[in-house]
Amino acid sequence: MAIGLEDKKAIVAEVNETATSALSLVVADARGVTVGGMTALRSQARDNAVTLRVVRNTLAKRALAGTEYECVSDVLVGPSLFGFSMEDPGAAARLFKEFAKEHKNFEVKALAVSGQMLGAEQLDVLASLPTRDQALAMLMSVMKAPVTKLVQTMNEVPGKLVRTLAAVRDQKEAAA
């Protein structure tokens, strides 16, 4: 079914708006994936703040022009499924990686982060990025470590004094 010019303009504008606010992009080929599989993928994408779009390549190239994801234009051959990570840069990569394990027909074509295109083999690198909560937890543990060490060191001084006094007491009791 043919798409009218106004509908094409709306699709291009919508994808462009999504691309401008996205943190990363994963492009995949979903040929051979069942409708039930795609429905499950879309459901998981909503839960992980990932926007999924299937767009014609010509419209996608126009929509991505002028954004930091323009670099993926060269790999747009055949049907393409676009996964835009909106809150966590690694969310779409983790989602597509897990989905590809279950569906052999699902193939990741390319990734893009901050205007840099990565090959499909870099999927694990992007998927292993910590989430915001994990990154904050790591930061807090790094910030907490020096304070904890200082408290332990300061607590050691009175503890050593108490142990020395106890040793003197035991020595005097043994002598008496």
Automatic annotation (TrEMBL):
SUPFAM superfamilies assigned to the protein according to its UniProt record, in alphabetical order: Ribosomal protein L10-like (SSF160369)
BP-aspect Gene Ontology terms: translation
Coiled coil: none
Highest taxon, organism lineage: Bacteria
GO cellular component: ribonucleoprotein complex; ribosome
Keywords, in A-Z order: Ribonucleoprotein, Ribosomal protein, RNA-binding, rRNA-binding
CDD domains assigned: Ribosomal_L10 (cd05797)
Assembly with partners or alone: Part of the ribosomal stalk of the 50S ribosomal subunit. The N-terminus interacts with L11 and the large rRNA to form the base of the stalk. The C-terminus forms an elongated spine to which L12 dimers bind in a sequential fashion forming a multimeric L10(L12)X complex.
Family: Belongs to the universal ribosomal protein uL10 family.
Protein purpose: Forms part of the ribosomal stalk, playing a central role in the interaction of the ribosome with GTP-bound translation factors.
Stated name of the protein: Large ribosomal subunit protein uL10
Native source organism of the sequence: Kineobactrum sediminis
Chain's gene name: rplJ
